[in-house]
Structures are given as structure tokens and as C-alpha cells.
Amino acid sequence: QLQLVESGGGLVQPGGSLRLSCAASGFTLDHSAVGWFRQAPGKELEGVSCLTSRGVPTIYADSVKGGFIIFKDNAKHTVYLEMNSLPPADTAIYYCAALYYSCSVRADDYDTWGQGTQVTVSS
Predict the structure, then answer these.
(1) Phi and psi (nearest 5°) for 89?
(2) Neighbouring-strand partners of residue 96
(3) Which of 22, 59, 67, 121 has a CB 3.0–4.6 Å from the CB of 96, allowing a cystine?
């Protein structure tokens, strides 16, 4: 069974950092791209970042450029999203999702999704 499990969310103060993890089971990341999406209260799902199967990163959300880093550990079947200098506007449920080989900013292109992890940026 193909599965993704996110972890690492929580409450952080403005300006703080969090590292989200997306662990894959039932498949490897050698041939899968993994993207991170987020949905803030009352807003649509937004593409944040993606890492191709070859480890090439893309940042989709302009607001996080320079603050978010995406990378993976193939041996652990895990993709990470390092989030730094977080403002309250980054509060959302963060989801990871996988598709074959290349990245896409379109959520509909992804066929395996995690359950999401809540990130709250607040003092």
C-alpha cells in the first residue's frame, strides 16, 4: 500500500523554524517527485515546493522563497521541508504528495497524499 505520513508540525513563534517530514512507505523516492502543499483557514490549497526524483528543488510560493528549503534522504524514504523565519501568514495544514518522476504545481497531478500536519505560527 502506497502511503505518505507527515510529521513535525506544531506551534511556533513568529520568526521561528520548523522542519516537516514526509515519510514514504510502499514505494521509494528514486522515481517519485514529492511536493508540499498547504491550506490556510478559508483559503484554497496552495503549492509550496516540490522535489523531483533526482533531487531538483522548486519553490512555488513566492512568499516562502529564501525561507523554505526542500530536500530528501532516499535511504530513509523521507522528504523534508525546512521552514525558517516563519510569519503568522504561514499558518496552515501542510500536506505532502507524490507523483511519478517530475514536479507539478497542480494538486490534481499528484496521486498519493498524506493526512496533513498542522503548523501554527503565533505568539
Answers:
(1) -65, -15
(2) 36
(3) 22
CB atoms under 10 Å from CB of 34, counted, come to: 27
At 66, is the pLDDT very low, low, confident or very high (cuts 50, 70, 90)?
confident
Terminal Cα distance for the chain, rounded: 40
Amino acid at 78: T
Structure confidence by residue, pLDDT tens digits, 3-60: 999 999 999 999 999 999 999 998 888 899 999 999 999 999 999 999 999 999 998 9
Q: Indicate the SS3 state at residue 11.
A: strand
Cell of 25: 512507505
Residue in the block written with cell 511556533: 12
Amino acid symbol at 114? G
- Residue 117: φ, ψ to 5°: -135, 135
| Residue 43 DSSP code | S
Q: Measured between alpha carbons, how far is 73 from 75 in angstroms, rounded to an integer?
A: 5
